[in-house]
Amino acid sequence: MQTDIAFQAILEYLYGLKRFGIRLGLENISCLLSRLGYPQKTVRTIHVGGTNGKGSTAALIQSILMAKGYCVGLYTSPHLQSVRERIQINRIDIPQDEFIILFETIKDIIESEKKEITFFEFLTAMALKYFCDQRADLAVIEVGMGGRFDATNIINPEVSVITNIDYEHTEYLGKELKEIAFEKAGIIKNEGTLVTGVRQQEVLALMQDICDSRDAGICSLDNDFKVTVEKMEMTKTRFRFQDRRKVFGNLEIPLAGRHQVDNAALAVKTSLMLAERGFDIGEEEIRNGLKNVNLKGRFEIVKRNPMVICDGAHNPAGIKSFMESLLQLVSFDRLFVVFGAMSDKDLSQMGEPFASHADTIILVKPGVERAVDPELILNQFKKHKQEIIIIRDVDAAINQALFRAGKKDVICIIGSLYLVAEALQFLDPVSVTSC
Question: For residue 174, what pLDDT is reported?
Fold first, then answer.
């Protein structure tokens, strides 16, 4: 009981750090990790950046490594239910008592240094220290935002992965696609290796130039390795992977959507690169790892009749990919969309993928400080012809959608992982853990 009370106090402290907002730069994290004994230097890492698919790709890489029996750390954001989800080893969240010990250690350093550390910097330091203390064989680290000045860029990874590039966080990363790409390419290290799913030729050329300037290798999807969908279903997808040395047919992931096949291809290629660096990873581990990956909030079907699907797509490109998968995989009479977003997202294009298919859009406000007011979303969405209503409370909005929907209709809950977290808590509270 006392431990639970202490943990709740810690959460209040950590969430209070969000008052410092987003601060890009490596000075604070460098200072903090030096006081912790440079844990980032003792853990071998994979760094995963990009616009969409970072979390999925990171989890797929982790799962392949786990299939061989490696001790694998995973650091991702945001979380669905518990902040401890962000720091895992072999899919087990950091234990509460370990979390408390690490918190106290880092808090003491912050106070002695009189530093203003952000929420993300604090958790990044905690993750790297935890992976070091637990002697992880390898840790998969997801970039928070951008890359060049993201706190995670303190690591020197075995392989850098950039899933794709699209418009996001333009107030921090730049207004032009090449500016955003330049920031994300900051995770490419001197004499390192980049695996990427970038397809835009001008962006790929920029990546190539940066790799050349840093004497780094580059492997790009469609050029150095290819993927072909063999069969796509609502709960699983089979595909074929091929590069210059290997061909794997009939690979399977328990995930829906063409975009997840691209993410899986990046994970396979990254695993093969690791094998070249001495990790014992072969076809069996790749097959088993892909097949047994566990991801919540990605085209997750949580109810049927009517079908309710939750997905954390949170920008125009992600929503477009989701809608393409939905239309390919699911037939329905009417489509109800429950939508909520964060204030730092580009709302102007988010309604477009729904425009021709959604019958009703219900706008909500997830219960986090950064959530955008539904009235602002309405201003962007009202140019479309479907019915749009505002029900700020997430639970009430889902209830309204369920009340309206028939057995052959579909309800999509989409726009932010924070929204998905609330929806899962409401629809399936037994399957989620508390923070």
Answer: 87
